[in-house]
């Protein structure tokens, strides 16, 4: 086997979790970023950082490609800049992963969806993702590119949990009757991507979420319980005065099935629900505080 090299376009929160896992297995990982100030942090994880846009020659060096850059109004930035070069690799690439969102399904009023559901995005972000998914899958159909699409639920993990807001007294339990979200711990995203890399199925689409969709106020309540803090008061959604971005998340309510990642990729989630995930985050915070205490 030749060198295993991941070229990661947009090497952010989720991509870095995969990168750390692959580096530990002896991979070469190259990650693009727009922020040179973050180079040292990436190097510390074993990733070779490069500024966006990268040298197109790197595409020829990669055995695997991950795209986690969001589309903009003009479409997918990676496709615009490097679509032809990537398509030219065709089946010469071992794997290409595109990170999308469960927002492509739109609002289902709390109902279940799986990967066979029709796409009904209700936000501009969702519509852009549908177009980007389609464009990448067309490269699979036309050029044999080994494209895999991953529709991610709400991402949480280290540095992205509710504990800081609870401790500062800024957390709110916003209640919209019937509202449920699906979530996924960042390390389980990496687990799913690694499983797909080990078992490629070009053209496949996977929902990436945990086992238990839940109302957002339940998650805050569990985090408060773990911290031993009083429950923040419930605030009706219509009184919450949310910004446009936050309000858009409440415009969609659905339960997302993760059966396919278990059945086809053999994935066993490390954090199958928010309770397991939050407990692990709190334990990790405690370990980090112990490690940073002065002697």
Number of helices: 11
Envelope shape: globular
Mean pLDDT: 95
Q: Give the CATH class of the domain at 5-158 and 183-210 and 256-270.
A: Alpha Beta
The quaternary organization reads as: single chain
Which architecture of the domain at 5-158 and 183-210 and 256-270 would the CATH scheme give at its second level? Answer: 3-Layer(aba) Sandwich
Strand order, largest beta sheet = 3-2-1-4-5-7-11
**Largest sheet properties:** 7 strands, parallel
Share of helix among residues? Answer: 40-55%
CATH superfamily of the domain at 5-158 and 183-210 and 256-270: NAD(P)-binding Rossmann-like Domain
Q: If you consult CATH, what is the topology of the domain at 5-158 and 183-210 and 256-270? A: Rossmann fold
Radius of gyration: 20 Å
Structural category is: alpha/beta
Uncertain spans, ≥5 residues at pLDDT below 50? none
Name the helix and strand elements from N-terminus to C-terminus, one letter apiece.
Answer: EHEHEHEHEEHEEHEEHEHEHEHH
What does this structure look like?
With 295 residues, the protein is an alpha/beta fold. It has a domain of 197 residues: Rossmann fold (3-Layer(aba) Sandwich), CATH 3.40.50. Helices cover 40% and strands 18% of the residues. It has 11 helices and 13 strands. The chain has a 7-stranded parallel β-sheet with strand order 3-2-1-4-5-7-11, sandwiched between helices. A two-stranded parallel sheet has the order 6-13. A two-stranded parallel sheet has the order 8-10. Helix 1 links the parallel strand 1 and strand 2. Helix 8 runs parallel beside helix 11. The termini are far apart. The model has no long low-confidence stretch (mean pLDDT 95).
């Amino acid at each position: 086997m030749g060198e295993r090299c991941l070229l990661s376009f947009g090497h952010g929160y989720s991509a870095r979790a995969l990168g750390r896992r692959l580096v530990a297995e002896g991979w070469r990982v190259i990650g693009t970023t727009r922020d040179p100030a973050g180079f040292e942090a990436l190097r510390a994880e074993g990733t070779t950082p490069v500024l966006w846009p990268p040298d197109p020659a790197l595409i020829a060096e990669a055995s695997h490609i991950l795209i986690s850059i969001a589309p903009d109004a003009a479409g997918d930035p990676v496709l615009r800049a490097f679509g032809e070069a990537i398509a030219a690799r065709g089946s010469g690439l071992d794997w290409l992963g595109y990170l999308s969102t469960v927002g492509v399904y739109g609002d289902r009023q709390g109902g279940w969806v799986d990967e066979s559901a029709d796409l009904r995005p209700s936000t501009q972000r969702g519509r852009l993702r549908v177009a980007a998914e389609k464009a990448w899958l067309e490269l699979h159909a036309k050029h044999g590119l080994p494209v895999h699409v991953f529709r991610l639920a709400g991402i949480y993990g280290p540095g992205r949990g509710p504990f800081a807001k609870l401790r500062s007294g800024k957390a709110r339990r916003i209640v919209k009757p019937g509202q449920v979200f699906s979530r996924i711990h960042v390390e389980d995203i990496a687990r799913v991507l690694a499983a797909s890399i080990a078992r490629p199925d070009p053209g496949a689409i996977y929902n990436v979420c945990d086992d238990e969709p839940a109302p957002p106020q339940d998650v805050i309540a569990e985090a408060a319980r773990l911290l031993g803090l009083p429950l923040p008061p419930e605030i009706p959604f219509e009184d919450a005065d949310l910004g446009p971005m936050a309000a858009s998340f409440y415009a969609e309510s659905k339960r997302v099935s993760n059966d396919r990642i278990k059945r086809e990729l053999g994935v066993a989630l490390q954090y199958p629900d928010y309770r397991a995930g939050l407990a692990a985050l709190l334990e990790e915070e405690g370990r980090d505080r112990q490690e940073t205490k002065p002697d």
